[in-house]
Structure formats: C-alpha cells, structure tokens
Amino acid sequence: MHHDTSPAPERGRFITFEGIDGAGKSSQIAAVVALLQVAGIDVDQTREPGGTALGERLRALLLHEPMHLETEAMLMFAARREHLAARIEPALAAGRWVVCDRFSDATFAYQVGGRGLDRAKFDALEDWVHPGLQPDLTLVFDLEPAVAAARVASTGVDPDRFEREQCGFFERVREAYLERARGAPQRICVIDASRTPEAIRAEVERVVHERLLA
Ligand code: TYD
C-alpha cells in the first residue's frame, strides 16, 4: 500500500485590490503578481465579479443589465460563493496564493456606500458566504473621483453600468472604502493613488514585503 506522508501544504495567502473605477489598480495587480512569482510563489490571479465560468456570466449581467439594488448585491455574493468554492478555497488549501481584483469590500463600498443597501443585509450575506474568511491583505487605491473619472473616460472604452454613475456615487463609494479601512487597519492598507505609477508601485511592493513576505 502506498501512503502519502508529505505534510499538508501551508495555506496560501489571499490578497485583494480595491478602489473606485479608474483608481489604477490593474497595473499594480500585474506588478504584485510578478513580484510574488519572482519570490517563487505559485499565484492564481483572478477577479470579481467573475473568476469562474458561471461568475463571468453573472458579471456580464451585473455590468450591463438594470436591476434592483438587492438583486445586484445578491448576484455579487452568488458569484462570490461560486468563486470561493470552485477556485479560491482550493487554491489557498493547496498552498497557492490568490490575487483577486475586488472582493466583499467592493460590495460594501459600491452596494452599501454607493447604492444605499441596508448594512445589516450586507453583513448577513457576507456572514453567509464567507464566515471567518477575510483577505490576508487588501490594498485600497484611493483617488479623487473627478481624477478617476477622467482616467476612465480617456480609455475610450464604452462605460459599464457602474462607470456611468455620477461623481456623487463615487464620493460615497470612496468614503465607504475609507470607513471599512478604518475598521480593519491590520488588514486594509490605503494607498494614495494620486502619485506617479512608479511611486505607487514602490509603496505597494514595500507593503506586500512588510506584511506578507518578511
Ligand atoms: P472592475 O473589475 O474593476 O471593472 P473593470 O474591468 O472595468 O476594471 O469591476 C467591475 C465593476 O463591478 C466595478 O465598477 C465595481 C463593481 N462591483 C460592485 O459594485 N460590487 C462588487 O461586489 C464587485 C466585486 C464589483
């Protein structure tokens, strides 16, 4: 009989990136993934809503189909439930690190802060879908909504349902992110995204080193 005597791998780390549309997280995600890979870490890069075949179909609905704000919140968490079960949890259990573009902090910021979803309903959904699980590190890219909106407009890509929102919506989303960060300072790090990409990248790399690689 063959017995596998190798010990269970150490659980991987879960890193998430957040911020209003146009805050510039995409290029920083690529830099962090590269940094981790150079350090010899096996990384799974993914996004929300999305990350699974079903999640990507829900994403298409969420970004383009008008719906009630509670429908929107529940679909975000439905996609997340699938993502956790099919991809995030298995990766972390196998010792791989997961780098995810947005997670539940985005639902708090956009649906509670931006749209006015009842906070108790958000808490209930979060507690249902991932009790006891939070990212090991969350980077929130913080930027004035007017500056972020100009960046989104300059891409020339057709704006989705969220990107078409007014500045007031993004002011509320931004405030909700900052409030969430104040409530979990050991997990959430706010990055001033008004600086040059090089300056931002240097700080992001320093934070990842200090909090996860040191
Ligand atoms: P994102 O991946 O940042 O879009 P892009 O591909 O344009 O960079 O996010 C898609 C949108 O979904 C974004 O506007 C934020 C929104 N969103 C929520 O409103 N709630 C959520 O829980 C998540 C994960 C995203």
Secondary structure layout:
Layout: E1 14-19, H1 25-38, E2 43-47, H2 53-64, H3 69-93, E3 97-101, H4 104-114, H5 119-129, E4 137-142, H6 145-154, H7 167-183, E5 188-192, H8 197-213
Parallel strand pairs: 1-3, 1-4, 2-3, 4-5
Bound molecules: thymidine-5'-diphosphate.
Structure description:
The protein has 8 helices and 5 strands; from the N terminus they run E-H-E-H-H-E-H-H-E-H-H-E-H. It is of the alpha/beta class. The protein has one domain (14-213): 3-Layer(aba) Sandwich (Rossmann fold). A 5-stranded parallel beta sheet has the order 2-3-1-4-5, with helices on both faces. Helix 2 (53-64) runs antiparallel to helix 3 (69-93). The longest helix has 25 residues, at 69-93. The N and C termini lie far apart (41 Å). The model has no long low-confidence stretch (mean pLDDT 96).
Q: Tell me the fraction of residues in β-strands, as a range.
A: 5-15%
By CATH reckoning, the class would read Alpha Beta
CATH architecture: 3-Layer(aba) Sandwich
Q: H/E order of the elements?
A: EHEHHEHHEHHEH
Low-confidence stretches: none
The CATH homologous superfamily is called P-loop containing nucleotide triphosphate hydrolases
Q: Could you tell me how far the N terminus lies from the C terminus, measured between alpha carbons in angstroms?
A: 41 Å
| Structure summary, number of beta strands | 5
